Amino acid sequence: MLLNRATAEGIRDGSVTAVFRRWEVPRARPGGRQRTVAGVIRFISVDPVVGELTDEDAKSAGLPSAEALRKADRGDRGGRLYRIGVTFDRPDERLTLREQLPSPTEVAAIDDALDRLDRARRTGPWTREVLGLIESRPGIRAPELAESLGRDTRPFKADVRKLKELGLTCSLAVGYRLSPRGEAYLRAQ
Questions:
Q1: What pLDDT was estimated at residue 75?
Q2: What pLDDT was estimated at residue 37?
Q3: Which pLDDT does position 92 carry in this prediction?
Q4: pLDDT above 90 covers what percent of the chain?
Q5: What's the maximum distance between 2 C-alpha atoms anywhere in the chain?
Q6: What is the CB neighbour count within 10 angstroms for residue 75?
Q7: Which positions ≥6 away from 19 have C-beta within 8 Å?
Q8: Distance CA 68, CA 60 (A)
Q9: 167: exposed, middle or buried (C-beta count within 10 Å: 0-12, 13-18, 19+)?
Q10: Based on the number of CB atoms within 10 Å of its own CB, is 173 exposed (0-12), middle (13-18) or buried (19 or more)?
Q11: What was the pLDDT predicted at 72?
Q12: Beta partners for residue 42, in sequence order
């Protein structure tokens, strides 16, 4: 579920306790978690909306009125409207990780993790090629990076997210860059 920065930060500071989404079937489960730009959030409840939206519903979503919530809903998209109770769970540990320069032991662990990702790909190794591409072309849009490798954009983005899980890359407003951890890792090679 995509959340804009204001909503994610509202969840972090407690001013937003619910989000509303229109789905054919729920895409979140109570107890589930999701990373956002403001940290990791947890889903408390997922309930179909019964009846009219209220000003109380709007305030829980960080909006001024039921009217504003109805406008944001855009009910013309089909599906059923769900109220998803949310709370802040924890800061995103990747933010801290990407600033930490790896020790020699951690460089070996990163090597092992990248080797596992490479072995899992039927088409062969990809991790270091993508790291090198991001290093040489920071701030370039994912479709352009993917095309330069002859790849489709969606799987390319999924691969970059795997590198981000290891603290090696950072997303920018446009494109990516290596994190300090990723730069140090490549220098250690």
A1: 64
A2: 86
A3: 87
A4: 86
A5: 60
A6: 10
A7: 1, 3, 7, 61, 83, 84, 86
A8: 12
A9: buried
A10: exposed
A11: 84
A12: 33, 87
Query: Residues of the chain whose pLDDT is less than 50?
Result: none
Structural element, H or E, at residue 44: strand 39-48
Q: Do residues 110 and 101 touch, judged by C-beta distance below 8 A?
A: no
8 A C-beta contact, residue 64 and residue 71: no
For residue 17, what are the contacts with CB-CB under 8 A and spacing of at least 6? 11, 60, 85, 86, 87
Domains recognised in the chain with CATH numbers: 5-91 (2.30.130), 95-187 (1.10.10.10)
d(CA 60, CA 64): 9
| C-alpha–C-alpha distance, residues 97 and 166, integer Å | 8
Residues 129, 75: Cα–Cα separation, whole Å = 44
Dihedral (CA of 144, 150, 151, 156) sign: negative
Q: Is the pTM of this model over 0.85?
A: no
